[in-house]
Amino acid sequence: MNLTASDQSPDLETVYFNPSGFRLNSINWVNLLVISLMHAGALAAFFFFTWEGLAWMVGLYWFTGCIGITLCYHRMLTHRGLQLHPAPKSIAHLAGALSMQGLPLDWAMSHRIHHARSDKPGDPHSPLDGPWWSHMFWLFPARNYVTRKQLMAKYIPDLVRDPISLFFQNTYLIWNVLLGAGLLWFGGLPWFLWGFCLRTVMVWHMTWLINSATHIWGYRNYSTTDLSKNLWWVAFFTFGEGWHNNHHAHPVSAYHGHKWWEFDATGWVISIFSFFGLATHVRGTKPQNLPS
Ligand SMILES: [Zn+2]
Ligand SMILES: [Zn+2]
Fold first, then answer.
1. How are beta strands 83-84 and 279-280 bridged, if at all?
2. Separation of CA 277 and ligand 1 centre (Å)
3. What total number of domains does the chain contain?
4. Domain span at residue 66?
5. 66-102 confidence digits (pLDDT tens)
6. Could you give the count of Cα atoms lying within 13 Å of 272 in the half-sphere of its Cβ?
């Protein structure tokens, strides 16, 4: 019998993300500890309310959620839907790092695999493996370092050569320590708990809802081969990312709202950046020109 190349090589994606591989002796304790402590801090925030703390929370929610995760990690790094000039690109990477959603290269790799394997074996976070698995439990298994390197070579060869991405890959923790310490030093617990803990937890859950809720609830504009849906309230809190069925149908488009009323706050930011020449090579068509 002649074996094909795919027969001979193990299915790296399925091995790396396999939900049934989740065992008590293979827990990523760092992720579990950080996520638990941050949730405790988020609950404690309600006992330390100040208007300044709220302002830090709202400002950093937009900076890390819209600029960091949505514009930088997702639409620029993962899908190459736009390019930024070095200064705004560095600031966007900083915003991404401060979201505490992991290293930029790892985030982009997992998400490219999500698109390659959507709701099929090897998808990092499909609700077919359970809604809570897709929402956050997929973050808790310890994973194989060698397999990670192989997947990086396969999925993100462009990003591993990007000096700005590499810089923030290697300095990720420093920025978070600086922000957390700075908020605590200058504003005490109210600034720290609202601007760091509660804000991080809120951006986490809003991002995670895209992996869980928008593959469960909502409507579909396009007949994609996955379970992706458009869900307005997730789109509202994630600056346009909740139009997830549109996104799966047109993954490289920098604009996710395809009907005139599908508001896409990140798309508006990209349009402003593009107008001032800060964003170039913006891919995709603006909403009013897409099929209704
Ligand atoms: Zn998806
Ligand atoms: Zn995507």
1. antiparallel
2. 30
3. 1
4. 18-289
5. 999 999 999 999 999 999 999 999 999 999 999 999 9
6. 9
